[in-house]
Design goal:
Shape of chain B: elongated
Structural class of chain B: mainly beta
Low-confidence stretches of chain B: 1-23
Helix content of chain A: 10-25%
Mean pLDDT of chain A: 74
Number of helices of chain A: 1
Helix content of chain B: under 10%
Oligomer: heterodimer
Radius of gyration of chain A: 29 Å
Number of strands of chain B: 45
Largest sheet of chain B: 8 strands, antiparallel
Structural class of chain A: mainly beta
Radius of gyration of chain B: 34 Å
Amino acid sequence: MRHLKSILAVSILLISACGGGGGESSNSVAQTVDGFLQPLSDSDDSFIDTASNNNKLSSISALKNQRFTASKKLNISLIFNEGQPCAINIYKDYVVGESEEIITRDQSRIMKLTSDNCQYNGPLAVLNQQSKVLIEIIDINNNQINYSEAMINGDTLSFSAI
Amino acid sequence: MYNIPSHLLSLAIFTISVSMHSVHAAPFETCPTQAFLSQFNNGATHYKSVDLSSGKVTTLQVDDGLGSDVVNAIAFNEADQFVYGFNRQKLSLVRFDSDFKATILNFTNPPTNNFYVGDIYNNTYYFYRKNIGLFYTKLDSADPDYLKIIKVTGANQSMNIADFAFHPTNGFIYAVESSTGNLYQIDPDSGASSLITNTGVLASGTHFGAAYFDKSGYFYAVRNSDGHIYRTDLTDLDNIPDTNTIYFAKAAPTNSNDGARCANAIVESSGTDFGDAPDSYKTTLDDGGARHLINYTNHFLGSTVDADNTDDIATYDDNANNLNDEDGIQFQTSLTTGLTAQIKVTIGGEADSYLGGWVDWNADGDFDDTNEQIFQDKLLTAGQHNLVISVPVDAVSGQTWSRFRVNSNGGLENTGGYSDGEVEDYQVTITSVPTSYLYYPSEEQFVTLAYEDKWPQKGDYDFNDVVMNYRVTQVIQNNKVVSINIDGQLMAYGASYSNGFAIQLPNIARSNIEENLILLNHDNNAIDTSSTLELNQTNAVFIISSNLKNNYTSNCGLNYYRTEPSCSNDSGFTFSINMPLKSPIELNAVPDMPLDPFIFASDNRTRNDFWNGVMPGRSLEVHLADMPLTDLGNENYFGLQDDISQSPTFFRTALNLPWAIEIGSQWQHPTEQTDITVAYPKFLNFIATNGEQDKDWFDHPILHKIFQD
């Protein structure tokens, strides 16, 4: 069926080609009510370029080590709250407001940890396009929350308290 | 001079009067679903409607044309669609049009006493008063007894009731006594009454001032002092349930109350937010479930609220099928027995709101046990609040449900309706040991897996033959992973061939899977897992579907799903699987994300031309680049046609291009036969720079080249 679709598409293109032959700039044609033909440009309102850009994936060669997966693994060591019990949440999406208030995107949480000593040593998978994460440290006993923003540099995190 | 007989003159004046008034005296157009109240406030009788579903009270009229007269014992007459009542000052009957404007109808034999209990059946108005008796008058003007008061002799006169209502089908009257909660059935012909049940609800020091029926046979009584509406199940009078009366909704409290309603109207909800928990928690309208009339401005949880169908419960995903409005509660920490936990509550809008919260700690299917209410009318300002709760030491480990409600006035119960606010139900997990989670890519987001299925022939690179949203959750206890859980959503199927979908856990032995505890859901329904953990494999391999084409429905050509813009689809496919480990493993022993999800050829199905009619079946696997076959994959296919697999390189062409890619977002795939680089031109540079540039290529589509709903 895919072959059939291709053949049909080619046929339509050929038919269109048979009808062509004229240029757009002929001034010998009588002017119509809407004046001369004025080709659309990409910047015209509501103009959508329906033509293909003719790109083809098969026209390019990838390196042998090109990865087609979306993440990398960090190995991180965290310790907060002077080693006292806490919960640690890490978010990939968040907003730091003008007055430095933190608004977390709860659905973007990537770690939810309960720890007797407020520590975590282990892996963390982050998306390739991620450049930073937000770490939320919850002192449950005192119902206090602190935040730390961590930048992703290669396979490591570097911290800055907020 | 001819003298007109006085009775004819009266009739003529009456006729003229009625005809003049009829211009304005329109009856109610239909049998209305709302109930009506008369209440005496500020020197006049006010008339209000009551939405029994939510308890919302709306004032309809404050000037009935009768000045300061008190009108009580109101009733709806289905025969003429007017409301009638008893005028305390004039001791007359009053008829109300649909605007609640009054017309006095004098009795031919006026009474001496005031009456405040009344209802209508078969075009006959019945009224009652304790120690005086039961009476009726005909409302059909052609009836010889029209507006004549007739006493029902022998009637029980001892019932301390403030209103009564006729059952819509059996012709008996029902009333609940305030001081005892007794529900009486009264025969309108003989006046004899019988006690049929006790509601278990009292109105001590006040009254059940309004009584109604609905078409199904449910009886409603409104308690004046707090506006609580209780519903008694009289749908089958031969089998009245032991627990027959439930709290149903909250209306406004009042000092005076009388009710009228068309008993043959159903009680329905509209513009109402419902919970999502199973109905044992009382979620649907039928069960008097938790519900709120929605108000988009204030008194909701999270960013917004939407209206739901009453039966969208439990396995129905409210957020996926409607606005993503179940967003006001975030469990910041695990719920571990004996420990405290923190919950982030977001009050939407700008106004203060009352919060109620419940957790079914003993997992018995209700929120009614001692200590299951965790927040009681907690007044919160708009914005976020971090609240701490204590998880009981004897809470039952495992999954259970929680319910959170807000409204403007408090008094929140775990069931019933309110005239504003929102309810959000959450399924939660209680653990006996502290539990942590690693989410990939996050707790509620997905990455996308996109496959070409013509391997070992290269395909058309539209990467929409199979498109799957995909998320991994690692469950951690005592610093080791005890379970790996995966959620997925089929986003496209642009292939005529039949493909299965499976997940391999590289370097995790099949023997380390607690097979009896595997839980696999298709579209939120648990399915048989006897063949989910695949046999004859060294690594653990989980078959999610042996043929995805059987998991969705489509009306598109070749049964494609969401790849062609011109056709719509009927239903998709979601899955979730819990893969518990016998021996917990170290965090670093978990395979790199995204593990090894792959597609495979369904058995007994033909494939592309390369196979020339041979049906490779399960032995044909298509993995992400450089991921290995499972034991059941046939390595003899490596190196055929366009594939150049040679360890450690797998599933690549001579140009090192793959048959499957993982995209770090919830991707909008290309339309059918659109090359990925046509739809996403930056993908070319991403490859040309070996992934160093245009890492967000997937965020820059050519819009008309991608599939959009």
